[in-house]
């Protein structure tokens, strides 16, 4: 008979455990997804919580600081205020975005191209590119769907917020009790594996935290600044274009260019001077975000050179579309950290 002590018995036991684990993950995929989201969020906010807890104010002979519970509470209070301010105008902005896509053909017709053409393209060729019917039809249909389902979209946003709040609560528990949870999770493993995990957690959490703050935070700030700029310059669809910039900027390289093209189309029918100023300011804001804020907040922790970043975006977009393009960089950055760590460990072992 086969038992767990023979090599074949151990092999079959491992196969059985893996099969049961895969079955449970499939059956409980929503719970697993919630836990993974919470784990990602916990890793993202951990560096911020550490900075808050390490901050001390000296008052005479006392030092006043925050523990993890108060730090998480203050951070979540700030996020709650931001979410409420963002959700309040959401239905109007979503409807405005739908109207922009519906009226896209009319906006394109207003663009007067030079008769001599641009960059070896004649005026007719440029008009043909701008008025490609399948693309325009898709944009109009997308806009009609947004307008007709504004209430549905709002409910989906509220539902997503509900799931997000639950994820935030789980993430808060993970951050506050991270030490005890880590000890419990690593207890069945060997001492060497526990040491490896403890070494890897800080750089991975810094990578995730830098990406969330650096990409999501700066993209939201960029969208808001774009909205203010377009509103001051009197460009129509300012709210919708600000939202479009904030979302599109999450996709490096390509997203910013697409958002600028949309701003150019909306600004063309306005006074030329105001439209040119608005477009220039929006372009300058994107450059500040890309070449000052991103290298400062993200680049030191993401551990990816420009080629690797672009390759990760292409692969993520190919596998999972826009969502894949957004989540691919932190996954690639985490993979790079793991690869470098184990490559160095293997090299050191071989040298010994």
TrEMBL record:
Q: What is its main location?
A: membrane
Q: Where in the cell is it found?
A: Cell membrane
GO BP annotations listed: transmembrane transport
Origin, by domain of life? Bacteria
Spans through the membrane: 7-26, 32-49, 69-88, 151-176, 221-244, 250-270, 277-297, 309-332
Would you indicate the residue range of the signal peptide? none
What are the alphabetically sorted keywords of the record?
Answer: Cell membrane, Membrane, Transmembrane, Transmembrane helix, Transport
Q: How does it sit in the membrane?
A: Multi-pass membrane protein
One annotated Gene Ontology cellular component of this protein: plasma membrane
Q: Which family does it belong to?
A: Belongs to the autoinducer-2 exporter (AI-2E) (TC 2.A.86) family.
Q: What is this protein called?
A: Permease
Q: From which source organism is this entry? A: Pseudanabaena biceps PCC 7429
């Amino acid at each position: 008979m086969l038992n767990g002590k023979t090599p074949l018995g151990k092999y079959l036991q491992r196969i059985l455990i893996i099969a049961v684990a895969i079955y449970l993950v499939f059956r409980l995929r929503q719970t697993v997804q919630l836990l993974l989201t919470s784990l990602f969020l916990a890793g993202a906010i951990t560096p911020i919580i550490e900075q808050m807890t390490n901050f001390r104010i000296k008052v005479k002979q006392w030092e006043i600081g925050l523990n993890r519970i108060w730090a998480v509470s203050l951070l979540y209070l700030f996020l709650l205020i931001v979410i409420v301010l963002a959700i309040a105008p959401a239905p109007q902005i979503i409807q405005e975005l739908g109207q922009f896509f519906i009226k896209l053909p009319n906006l394109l017709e207003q663009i007067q191209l030079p008769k001599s053409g641009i960059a070896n393209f004649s005026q007719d060729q440029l008009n043909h590119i701008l008025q490609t019917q399948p693309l325009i039809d898709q944009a109009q249909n997308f806009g009609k769907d947004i307008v007709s389902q504004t209430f549905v979209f709002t409910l989906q946003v509220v539902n997503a917020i509900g799931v997000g709040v639950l994820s935030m609560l789980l993430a808060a528990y993970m951050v506050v009790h991270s030490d005890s949870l880590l000890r419990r999770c690593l207890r069945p493993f060997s001492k060497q594996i526990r040491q490896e995990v403890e070494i890897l957690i800080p750089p991975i959490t810094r990578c995730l935290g830098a990406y969330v703050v650096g990409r999501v935070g700066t993209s939201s700030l960029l969208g808001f600044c774009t909205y203010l700029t377009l509103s001051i310059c009197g460009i129509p669809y300012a709210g919708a274009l600000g939202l479009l910039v904030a979302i599109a900027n999450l996709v490096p390289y390509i997203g910013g260019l697409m958002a600028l093209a949309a701003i150019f189309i909306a600004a063309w029918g306005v006074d030329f001077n105001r439209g040119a100023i608005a477009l220039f300011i929006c372009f300058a804001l994107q450059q500040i975000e890309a070449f000052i804020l991103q290298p400062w907040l993200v680049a030191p922790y993401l551990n990816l050179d420009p080629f690797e970043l672009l390759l990760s975006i292409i692969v993520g977009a190919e596998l999972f579309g826009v969502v894949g393009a957004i989540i691919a960089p932190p996954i690639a950055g985490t993979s790079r950290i793991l690869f470098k760590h184990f490559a160095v460990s293997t090299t050191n072992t071989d040298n010994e």
